[in-house]
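Here is an idea for our session: we take a single protein and study its fold together. To get us started, please write out a protein record for me. Once you have written the record down, we can walk along the chain together.
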Amino acid sequence: MAGNARALIDWHSNLWLPEHLGPEQRAEMGSKTGRSVDASPAAHKRHVADICEKFVLVAMRWNRLGIHIPNEFVAEYAADYKGRAVGFACVDPHDANAPTELEHAVVKLGLRGLKLSPVYAGFDPWSPEAWRLYEVANALKVPLLWHQSAAYAQQSMLEYGNPILVDRIARAFPHLRMILAHVGQPWTAETVVLLRKHKQIYADLSARYYRKWQCYNALMLAIDYGVTGQLLFGSDFPIQTPSAALDSFRAINDWGEGVTMPRIPDSLIDDIVYNRPLELLWPDGIG
């Protein structure tokens, strides 16, 4: 871990082995984007754990796409960084035993949240199968991390992706904390409206810094709506390392010679990067 006077927290990082990803996902993330798909424990340690003060890890279970990053795999790695790492479990709402699996992941494995993606897993976020998971998470007082945004696998289901669908869930569970990953892209305006409406919802900026125009506009909307305090820094490692994500974020105002745009304040960038403690989502601490 870098000895930085200002603690860097990565609110969104991935951990997997090649066999955990389906072939389409490996192709999409690798050959089509040109980005690294190495999220092995060794790579994560080198690029995330050795750099960041604290970090969030996510499991995935998207059965319809052949993606399965086991809860046990994430929990075992997180246990090596007790007090620094927070793991999110993932279960598939289509599985009859999904509520039991979630409770086991939290109570027995020590994971501290639930990762969900209606787009990848292919479920209606208002369905009874999904609703029972919100009830379990609410009872266990663990937050939800939504991939409620675009996905590019051919069989992903964009009709379930708009963040506005989360509004009904936030109304039903007003104390259930949530994070919308990737600022809900491409629905960044809808995400900002949700942040304004529901103070228990946050959004991470992971995998947006290199989509410079989209990230810039999302930040300007957040400034306009007064919700920048609900924005979180994340890398989406291995899509970017935390160091590369931070460099991209700091370059958000660099448009090239002769181009003048209203600036995202440097003080706001520092605020998002260094003033978002994990206690925002886990007020009782992470152990």
